[in-house]
Specification:
single chain, 415 residues, alpha/beta, 6-stranded mixed β-sheet, 15 helices, 12 strands, 45% helix, globular
Amino acid sequence: MSSIAKSVLRSVKHGRAAWLRTSSAHSGKRRFHRLVLGIETSCDDTGAAVVDEAGCVLGEALHCQKEVHLQSGGIIPVVAQQLHRENIDRVVQEALSASGVSVAELAAVATTVKPGLALSLGVGLHYSRGLVSRHQKPFIPIHHMEAHALTIRLTHPLEFPFLVLLISGGHCLLAVAQGVSDFLLLGQSIDIAPGDMLDKVARRLSLSKHPECHSMAGGQAIEHLARSGNQERLTFRLPMRQYRNCDFSFSGLQNIVSNAIVQKEKEEGIQEGEILSCVKDVAAAVQHAVAVHIIQRTYRAMLFCIKNSILPSKNATLVVSGGVASNQYIRKVLQNLADANDFALLCPPPRLCTDNGVMIAWNGIERLRAGLGVLHSTAGVRYEPRAPLGIDISKRVEEDSIKVPKLKEIRWLAS
């Protein structure tokens, strides 16, 4: 373990580390629905929840590592692993206690096994194996992105099919959900995710030193400063405009932004690590560029799905989930896009957009009902750090070469 990782873990042991959220909807009434315990450890949050077949969240708990990783400027996998190990049993017991449910009453245990950080996924799988073995319970392996995509069916009465945009710190993809385990992948990021890019830009701008942002994660700080910034004072060239597909690229955009920051530092005569006087304008312009890039690709996905009768031409739905879906500016821009194309826009509540045990338990319920992937032995189950979602038809999208409206009109949607 590196010296940085050891230092971060020492600060955790001194009580500055993380927080535990527990909530309960347990009423003490007799239950007639099947219950699933969901366990989530794909990245840096340890989550657990008990959900019933009616979609009632009986109890949940979440141990968040955000404060720890803010200290080190990013997630250190070995630190995340250690914190999962230290907290997983407590989080699961908190969720069970909040729900008033014993393991004996569960119909199954559902756990994220793909994709994510290998060391983090391993902790959840190891713990779940022991739990289902001791109590002889069925095990339901969960795809993290499938869980994000289906969370909307917990909060809204939505039928298949629907278009899904998943945008987070680790993922960015467009897909059509045709069933519980039936997805068509239209496009995805070819490099980094939008949340990762926003975090890196925030670090380059040294926003942790900004008096308004010292306790905020990178993306949150960008959104906060952007509210009082002028996005028109800087313009960033958007990536992949020449490619008529639904893939994303945020690494190139990050490089363009980094070069602009260097230029602004020279103009203001400051060193890297100092705060630019125009930092709010930079934040607003960066957030706007990310939003416009997302609109462009999502617009094409809508047109492709309607043209090929994958979605109905009337009353189609766009579901947006993942941590970046909590960004209110990006959400507003997507609402404008949906309205302009007669799509309904649905988003889970912000607390269910980020990683949590509820979405894993609900995905377990969906699979239990459909009889999909319910295992009576964990032999052969492995975690998968990289795992595609559904059937990849992105080449078909590119072959259709659908032209979206001119950039001026797309920028209008984001204005």
